[in-house]
Amino acid sequence: MQLIRLVSFYKTLGDKTRIRIIVLLKNGPLHGQAIAGKLGLKPPTITHHLNKLKEIDVVYQRREKNTIYFYLNERKLEQMVSSVVRLGGDEMFESFELDEGEKAKIIKNFTNADGTLKSLPAQRKKKLILLEYMLRDLEAGRSYKEAELNEHIKKFHPDFATVRREFVMAQFMYRQDRIYELNPPEMWPV
Questions:
Q1: In CATH, 94-187 is 3.30.200
Q2: Which residues make beta-bridge pairs with 144?
Q3: b/e map of 25-36 (b: 16 or more CB within 10 Å)?
């Protein structure tokens, strides 16, 4: 499971109204007016919080005639909560046992003489090695604006948007408000 999805999940749950809605829905489905009445809040407020919970797939809705009922997706909730316990063994921290010679061979096979990538491999292990290769000139602890990171990536590969997204998805980098920072090497999958 991606660390970013977990963070988003817990940020969304970090609201007392949303937790109260989850507790109410544990007892069975309710419509928006009923939730608003039980919590003493206005329907637009409840709609806002229900939309946030639907975004993380903890709540889903079903229409019955003219009424929309909201249901708790208990399976998804349990899966997300238990994933924190499994973090230490999760595949996002999976590391590959390759020596530097094997890594160099993979880099050589996928790069041109000028250091640019011929292609981004489909095989995860090789892709991660090449992503790490492209990060070699970036400084730990420094923040990079998106445009600045794009220019760095263009030295290696023309599709900077895909590579940038791969950096974040593979946990090499952290992104917030179009600012990127390297994650600690302990989080890197290679």
A1: no
A2: 180
A3: beeebbbbeebb
